[in-house]
Structures are given as structure tokens and as C-alpha cells.
Design brief:
binds zinc ion; 2 domains; four-stranded mixed beta sheet; about 260 residues; disordered N terminus; Helix Hairpins; mainly alpha; 5 helices
Length: about 260
């Protein structure tokens, strides 16, 4: 029976290769996680949500502003009509100097009524103008805030793109290394590893560190560790607790 001091496999035995593949897979997963969890990306998403909310508010304000503008222009049209009517009457009044007092009286009454109507219209116009003021101010505030957000958003997008490109470059390199390493694995071992990896959160092989599985971090019973130690080097050992392929330090060709 061979133990750790036995003949020992080469540093590039299948289990050493497998561990290398696992380490590369772990590195790839970490890169992908880093990419997905980029604070700049999170901030960009948050910013997009705020921009959308602000745009909705701005659209409502624009609607209010437009409605007020329509009201104002209606009032102005009415004022214009009243002014025009008054001018006509005044001209008639001027031309009718010396006409019977009763006719002049009727025109003067209408002119006085028109003045009252004009006063009312001007009061209404002022009220609309007063209503417009805060709406315009709020809209301007929204627009400048949106402009600031657009700047920040462009900044963040550029940062995200740059970091993504860096990570992607590293990922391509890792994937290439992973592919060529995985080619060196015996087919059955590779299949078993892939199956475990897909079921166990990306980790299909783990180091046996002393009496502990580095995959699930649980301690193996002493008898089990002893049994494993005496298995032939080509035996595939799995963790009782998590089912992962256990890589014995003795098979890694020294440390
Ligand atoms: Zn385990």
C-alpha cells in the first residue's frame, strides 16, 4: 500500500489538472460575478430609474404648463375681442356726437360693461400667469436635474464599458486556458466533474485539506480520511457530505 510517501504521481496527474480546471472555473465565475456586481453598473441602473421617474414628472408638468398656456391664450383672445369691440363703440360714439341722447346712452352703457369685462379678463390672466410661475420653475429644475443625470450617466456608461472590456479580455484568456486544460482530462473524469459542477454551484472538485473538504468545509471522519489515504492514486474520491470530487494533497505532486 502506498501512502503520501509512496511513488507519487507526476505533478500533472489528472487530479492536479482537474484542480487547475476547477481553479480556472472559479476564477471565471468570480470575474462574471464582479462584472455583474460592478458598483458603477448598479449606480447606472439606479440612475436610469430616477431619470425615468423624473421624466414622468416632467411630462406631467409639461402638460400642466401647456394647459395653462392654452387657458392664457383663450383669455387673451377674449381680451382682444373686447378691446376691438370697445374701439368700434368708441368710434361710433365719436361719430355720433350730437345724436339723440338715448342712443349715446346705450353705447356708453356697453362701453362701461366692456371695461368691467376687460378688468375681469385681466384679473384671470394674472391668475393664470401666477399659476404658471411655479410650474415653469419646477419644470426648469427637472430639466437641469435631467441634464446633470445625463452627464453622470454618460460618465458611468463609459466607466462600465471600460471595466467590462477589461474583464471580458481576462475572461477570454481564462476560457482559453480552461479549454486547453480541460482537454487533458480523462473523459469520464471530465464528465463527472461537469455534472457535479452544474449541480453544486460551480464547484465540482475540492481539495482535501487535512481532514476537511474544501468544497463544503466539513470535516471527514478519521476513518474515512484513513480509508481515502489508502486508496490507489487513480481512484476517484468524493466527499460524503457534498459529493464533490476530493483531491488529495498527495496527488498534487508536492506543495
Ligand atoms: Zn464536501
Amino acid at each position: 500500500m502506498s501512502d503520501t510517501a509512496g511513488p507519487g504521481p507526476s505533478a500533472e496527474g489528472p487530479f492536479a489538472v482537474l484542480l487547475g480546471v476547477q481553479d480556472l472555473d472559479t476564477a471565471i465565475a468570480q470575474h462574471e460575478h464582479r462584472k455583474a456586481a460592478l458598483p458603477e453598473r448598479k449606480e447606472l441602473e439606479e440612475l436610469a430609474r430616477r431619470v425615468a421617474a423624473l421624466r414622468r414628472e416632467a411630462a406631467q408638468l409639461t402638460e400642466q404648463r401647456d394647459a395653462l398656456a392654452t387657458r392664457l391664450s383663450h383669455l387673451e383672445e377674449q381680451s382682444d375681442a373686447v378691446v376691438a369691440r370697445r374701439r368700434t363703440l368708441e368710434e361710433r360714439l365719436y361719430a355720433a356726437r350730437g345724436a339723440p341722447g338715448r342712443d349715446l346712452q346705450a353705447i356708453e352703457t356697453e362701453v362701461a360693461q366692456l371695461a368691467g369685462r376687460l378688468d375681469q379678463l385681466e384679473t384671470d390672466e394674472l391668475a393664470v400667469l401666477e399659476e404658471q410661475e411655479p410650474v415653469e420653475a419646477e419644470l426648469a429644475r427637472h430639466e437641469s436635474e435631467l441634464a446633470e443625470m445625463a452627464d453622470r450617466s454618460a460618465e458611468l456608461s463609459a466607466a462600465v464599458q471600460k471595466i467590462d472590456a477589461e474583464i471580458d479580455r481576462e475572461l477570454v484568456e481564462l476560457a482559453e486556458r480552461r479549454r486547453s486544460e480541460a482537454h487533458r482530462l480523462p473523459e469520464a473524469l471530465a464528465r463527472r466533474y461537469e455534472d457535479l459542477r452544474s449541480r453544486l454551484g460551480g464547484t465540482g472538485a475540492a481539495r482535501l485539506v487535512g481532514d476537511r473538504c474544501d468544497g463544503c468545509h466539513l470535516t471527514l471522519p478519521a476513518m474515512e480520511v484513513d480509508r481515502i489515504r489508502h486508496l490507489p492514486p487513480d481512484a476517484v474520491v468524493t466527499c460524503d457530505q457534498c459529493g464533490r470530487i476530493l483531491i488529495r494533497a498527495s496527488l498534487l505532486g508536492g506543495t
